[in-house]
Design a protein that fits this description.
Chain lengths: ~290, ~400
């Protein structure tokens, strides 16, 4: 049989030989994170499956509601505690609306983990700048928790998180803990309300004010246009496209490179991404309708 | 598939031998072969060699397919029709997982019941090349599709070297025909047939001679141990015998003659220049030709449905009435549909230009990054079955012309 192309191999920790096999997981806690956005803590029901499950920051699961459908959702919890998986989900459609009607104690199904991780190892010894637009921060929380734990391996660690309005800022209650771990956290909103004391503007403004970025790497997640703007701002402070990573979203139904829906130029977002080094996708992101 | 054994010399198989071959395969396998239905040569379950399209010949051009009665046409003188191995190995609809609600809650398990193993008769070089490509998709990307793997393991292939090429064929450009073995080492059929007559090797079907086509003889060689065992049985039953030296030469000459006719095509005739094509296409994502082809393309999805390598699919949930059981059904999807790229309520590839560009660049360029090979086998199906006759070889030729410097195109 033909060998797999270079660079593609089964992900370690992937749950099953059958990529379509999902596993039951109990919702053990639900939190409101922002208007329309909830955090779900899940525990895989089967103890053998739970013990074998490992993931890396930036990877995602396919959450399955029987009879309703499946959605790709980032794993937002600490990879060091893989027995309890957090997913932060905005109710926007078929699956995510139905999930919002589930209660603590209910079961759903999931398969995973899938996708490429944030390159934390490659950034050791340097500065790490995490830049999030809106819900993008969900894909980066696992990385932030890892950076907090391994804080000494890095120089500056900065989180720049933007949202349209203050209510949309995710995990705002965790700023104190992240700061206590030695992480600089800055939040910015596009339009403030009466209670807002922080910055108003775009995350790109915060990137532009970072200072010398020559030893920094950027981890960015948000809408396609926001990621292009962040990469441009990063270049302005000396962070080249080969030191910027972005996490992309595309529709997907299999998550293992066999359904073709998530294609982006020569890439499968599910296998080659969702985390891409920016120089590999920069040109593709400039082309409308790719 | 057993290991290839080239040692077995080809044997001669007469009409009775071909019929017996189908019967032997049917003992253990569901036999699929070319047969005439709905005005085309399609692939279907067949019970005997009598169902092969003897006496029919196809005429194919861009946007055109006609079957003509032709008493001289043998069982494999037709060129590939709208079906391919894909229809059977990667069926248009298939349950990929079953969800059941039990005492413990919802559980997911593989679909029940392995369907009967398949044997496919009349497979061409381009089909074998397409199979090798789909193997890379469903077995080689690091995740194995279990149902595909099971069908693939049990699959018996009886290939045929092409005596004839349609004007839409361009396997000479993609290195996947007209001989079955042109698809490359490792893509071995269990048995390969070469039609030895009645007419002189290499003549077009129209002038194949006057002998009744049912009287065809074949050179039959085994490519695997399993194929050798079947051939051995035919020999033991007296239905396969040694091949005369002249016929042995003829069996090699048949595909050579077809190849020579393809190679002799003039500049106006169909071929695909694959030199540097991957880089060229990714460099020309904003070429104005995408808008030009989009003005003709109906986004009907035909090309992706008939293409033997296209693999896009989406999954639909089918709940049983009692809601205690859900089938997750995978269905063919097409990059020409808006749903294929729907995200945040809008199609990423909203314009037809963007969708045709996705199809062509994926097929001829992205595939190379993803699977190490081009996704095109030169079978010509997408040209024949396009209702408006869009021809990817012509589109590639047009894209090779540098875009006019002044007006940059958009998609
Ligand atoms: C790698 C990856 C990680 C992700 N991580 C997260 C995450 O952590 N959290 C998260 O919340 N999301 C995440 N997503 C996004 C999530 O997968 C999608 O939003 C998914 O589509 C939600 O599924 P759904 O069935 O609820 O919505 P769908 O029903 O698929 O709807 C999706 C969008 O399309 C619109 N829509 C649907 N049908 C129509 C129609 N007929 N006409 C018009 N509009 C329509 C909906 O309003 C909605 O905006 C991630 C995606 C990827 C690829
Ligand atoms: S792209 Fe067209 S010619 Fe190439 S394999 Fe597909 S159907 Fe055949
Ligand atoms: S190229 Fe032809 S067959 Fe393909 S979608 Fe367009 S009109 Fe249909």
């Amino acid at each position: 049989m033909t060998p797999p192309p270079a660079g593609r191999a089964a992900l370690p920790g992937s749950l099953a030989a059958d990529p379509w096999r999902s596993h039951a997981a109990r919702i053990v806690a639900i939190r409101d994170e922002a208007p329309g956005v909830r955090g779900y803590d899940l525990e895989l029901c089967d103890s053998a499956v739970r013990e074998a499950y490992r993931f890396r920051p930036g990877q995602f699961n396919m959450l399955l509601l029987p009879g309703i459908g499946e959605a790709a959702i980032s794993i937002a919890s600490d990879p060091d505690a893989p027995h309890r998986l957090t997913h932060t989900v905005r109710a926007v459609g078929n699956v995510t609306d139905a999930l919002a009607r589930r209660c603590e104690g209910d079961e759903i199904l999931l398969r995973g983990p899938f996708g490429t991780p944030w390159p934390l190892g490659a950034l050791e010894g340097g500065d790490v700048i995490v830049v999030a637009g809106g819900l993008g921060l969900a894909s980066q929380r696992a990385a932030i928790l890892t950076l907090a734990r391994q804080r000494n391996a890095y120089r500056r660690v900065v989180v720049l998180a933007g949202a349209k309005a203050p209510a949309g800022l995710l995990y705002a209650g965790e700023d104190a803990a992240w700061r206590a771990a030695g992480i600089e956290v800055e939040r910015v909103v596009e339009s403030a309300d009466a209670g807002w004391r922080g910055a108003v503007g775009l995350v790109t403004d915060l990137v532009a004010r970072l200072g010398d970025g020559r030893r920094a790497g950027v981890l960015c997640c948000g809408p396609d246009g926001m990621m292009r703007a962040v990469a441009a701002a990063a270049a302005g402070v000396g962070i080249g496209p080969e030191r910027v990573w972005v996490s992309m979203e595309r529709p997907m139904s299999c998550a293992v490179g066999q359904c073709g829906l998530c294609q982006f130029g020569p890439f499968f977002v599910c296998l080659d991404g969702p985390v891409f080094r920016y120089d590999r996708v920069a040109r593709l992101l400039e082309i409308p309708g790719l | 598939m057993g290991p290839p054994t080239d040692t077995a010399a080809p044997l001669e198989l007469g009409p009775a031998g071909l019929d017996r071959l189908v019967c032997i395969l049917a003992e253990t396998h569901r036999v699929i072969g070319p047969t005439v239905a709905d005005g085309a040569v399609v692939l279907r379950e067949i019970a005997s060699a009598a169902e092969l399209p003897v006496g029919w010949i196809d005429e194919q051009e861009g946007g055109r397919y006609r079957l003509h009665a032709d008493a001289s046409a043998g069982p494999f003188d037709h060129v590939v029709g709208p079906f391919s191995l894909k229809n059977f190995l990667f069926p248009p609809r298939e349950t990929v997982a079953l969800l059941e609600r039990g005492a413990e809650g919802w559980r997911s398990r593989p679909p029940e019941g392995a369907p009967r193993a398949l044997a496919v008769v009349g497979v061409r070089g381009c089909d074998l090349a397409a199979l090798a490509i789909q193997d890379r998709v469903f077995l080689g990307s690091g995740h194995v599709d279990p149902a595909y793997q099971a069908r693939r393991r049990d699959l018996i292939l009886v290939a045929v070297d092409c005596r004839r090429a349609a004007p839409t064929c361009f396997c000479h450009s993609t290195g996947s025909g007209p001989a079955a073995c042109d698809a490359g080492a490792g893509r071995v059929a269990d048995l390969t047939l070469v039609d030895l007559g009645p007419g002189p090797a290499g003549s077009a079907a129209e002038d194949l001679g006057i002998e009744p086509s049912a009287a065809r003889r074949f050179a039959c060689r085994a490519g695997t141990l399993r194929g050798a065992a079947i051939l051995g049985r035919l020999r033991a039953e007296g239905l396969a015998g040694s091949l005369a030296p002249a016929d042995s030469e003829l069996s090699a000459a048949v595909p050579r003659a077809t190849a020579a006719r393809l190679a002799a095509r003039g500049p106006g005739e169909r071929h695909l220049d694959t030199e540097g094509l991957r880089d060229l296409l990714f460099d020309r994502l904003d070429h104005p030709r995408w808008d030009d082809v989009a003005a003709r393309c109906l986004a009907c999805t035909n090309c992706t449905l008939v293409c033997p390598t296209c693999f896009c699919a989406s999954v639909t949930e089918i709940p049983a009435l009692d809601a205690e059981r859900v089938e997750r059904e995978r269905r063919w999807e097409s990059c020409f549909s808006l749903d294929h790229s729907r995200m945040h309520g809008r199609a990423v590839r909203h314009s037809t230009a963007a969708r045709y560009r996705q199809w062509l660049t994926h097929k001829l360029a992205g595939w190379i990054d993803q699977f190490g090979v081009s996704g095109c086998t030169g079978c010509g199906r997408c040209i024949t079955w396009c209702p408006v006759g869009i021809d990817l070889t012509a589109e590639v030729a047009a894209l090779r012309a540098p875009p006019p410097a002044s007006e940059g195109g958009r998609a």
